[in-house]
Amino acid sequence: MAVTLTPAAADRVKSFLHSRGHGVGLRLGIRKTGCSGYAYVVNYAEDVGAGDTVFEDQGVTVVVDSDSLALVDGTEVDFVRHGLNEAFRFKNPKARSECGCGESFSV
């Protein structure tokens, strides 16, 4: 099992954590919603809970809760900029379809 980051995503997380001054890494999860069934949830990881799985990639700790792990296993997290817009993007091999914005998916 793994969740990986592109260099752009790793740099962005490191920058956010540095400017924020605390946190252990990136927390990645899912919730049922969105136009395709599930939506990604990205936040700071303040700590690691008993049911969390931890991945290390490019100097960044990625924390995934046990309920989300099966749906995000194998996902690559990228960070992209298009003009004034910037966002994390997800390449999830388990996703059968995605909405147009790439923030929700179905399996």
Termini, distance in Å? 17 Å
Instruction: Show unreliable segments.
Output: none
Number of helices: 2
CATH homologous superfamily (4th level) name: HesB-like domain
Number of strands: 9
Query: Any guess at the CATH architecture?
Result: Sandwich
Shape: globular
Which class best fits the helix and strand makeup?
Answer: alpha+beta
Identify the CATH class: Mainly Beta
Please, could you describe this protein's structure?
The protein is α+β, with helices and mostly antiparallel strands. It has one domain: HesB-like domain (Hypothetical Protein Aq_1857, Chain: A, Sandwich). 20% of the residues lie in helices and 46% in strands. It is built from two helices and nine strands. The strands form two sheets. It has a six-stranded mixed beta sheet with strand order 4-5-2-3-9-8. It has a three-stranded mixed beta sheet with strand order 1-6-7.
List the helices and strands and how they pair.
Elements: E1 4-5, H1 7-20, E2 25-33, E3 37-45, E4 53-57, E5 60-64, H2 66-72, E6 76-82, E7 85-91, E8 97-98, E9 104-106
